[in-house]
Amino acid sequence: MTIKKRMKSWSLVVVAGLLGLVAACHDPTITVDSSDPSAAQTVKQSLPEGTSVEVIDRWQVEDFDKDIVQFATVFWEAEDSVSLRKLIRETNLVRDKRVLEIGTGTGLISLCCLQAGARAVVATDINPQAVANARFNWFQLEIPQTTENFDVRLVAADNSGAFAVIASQEQFDVIISNPPWEDGEVQTVADYAFIDTQFELLESILAGLDQHLTVNGEAYLAYGCVTAIREIYRRAERHGLQVEKLDERELDDLEDLFLPGMLLKISRR
Ligand SMILES: C[S@@+](CC[C@H](N)C(=O)[O-])C[C@H]1O[C@@H](n2cnc3c(N)ncnc32)[C@H](O)[C@@H]1O
């Protein structure tokens, strides 16, 4: 296992004063390393007014020298995307390409794309803390890109299709996602990490690929759930898409929930 959980090493320092413009009764709290004011400033700029974030953990992954920071309510399970990140790291999949990641969480996969030489990455998430988290990790990992190259967009809960914040003419060479995998009802913002009610997000991803992929574009989905993967096979055909399993394991041999996640390549027929 190359992913190692580290001791929480950041003291949780409240720098609510940074948001002094906000009335005290909102009491927004940002919890970051106060020794780095520019990092705190970056988080501040990332947040909708009144949103608070809290650093809850730091993780070491093989892709970066520095730890990835995880904010409260934001998903973490890097084993879901092991094979996707390996593909990004070890091939030219994203080099000089324009990439869209749907549901970026901490920004882990998008930041791997930037590090691997993607020309531009657009990342979306429905969780405001995830949007702030991805921007913050981009900043603190010091990936040598300009802000124009990493565009993190917040998806509204009442208009949450996969391409809701993507303009109709926007196209990408590579579209990637490690989507939520379980049908159910979302109760809290953290639930978006794993619940995809009636697989509506998956359905909207598949439905929008033809419009938002360039002529030779490809999509890659990482899932660690047999039920969700069977949904992909069932639905892809209806959208004129083919699914290629980039994994030697057979679905019949796996528990419904499994790790590491399985990588599926989706392309036009
Ligand atoms: C399984 S997590 C993956 C996070 C990250 N890509 C990773 O691999 O660590 C799924 C992510 O999708 C986000 N999400 C769920 N529904 C979404 C939607 N409709 N639009 C955009 N993001 C969504 C969640 O908030 C969560 O961050």
Molecules bound to protein: S-adenosylmethionine
Secondary structure class reads: alpha/beta
Q: CATH homologous superfamily name?
A: Vaccinia Virus protein VP39
Number of strands: 11
Report the portion of residues in β strands.
25-35%
Number of domains: 1
Specify the CATH class.
Alpha Beta
Largest sheet, spatial ordering of strands? 7-6-5-8-9-11-10
Let me know the average pLDDT: 86
The CATH architecture would be 3-Layer(aba) Sandwich
The share of residues in helices is: 10-25%
Which fold does the CATH topology refer to?
Rossmann fold
- The backbone outline, from C-alpha atoms, is globular
**End-to-end span in angstroms?**
36 Å
Q: What are the low-pLDDT stretches, counting only 5+ consecutive residues below 50?
A: 1-30
Q: Given the structure, what is the number of helices? A: 6
Radius of gyration (Å): 18 Å
Order of helices and strands: EEHEEHEHEHEEHEHEE
Short description:
The chain has 269 residues and is of the alpha/beta class. 25% of the residues lie in helices and 25% in strands.
Describe the structure.
The protein has 269 residues and is of the alpha/beta class. It has a single domain, classed as 3-Layer(aba) Sandwich (Rossmann fold). Helices cover 25% and strands 25% of the residues. It contains 6 helices and 11 strands. The strands form 2 sheets. Strands 7-6-5-8-9-11-10 form a 7-stranded mixed beta sheet, with helices on both faces. Strands 1, 2, 3 and 4 form a 4-stranded mixed beta sheet that branches. Helix 4 links the parallel strand 6 and strand 7 (150-154). The longest helix has 13 residues, at 128-140. 42% of the residues are buried. Residues 1-30 have low confidence and may be disordered. Bound molecules: S-adenosylmethionine. S-adenosylmethionine (SAM) binds next to helix 3 and strand 6.
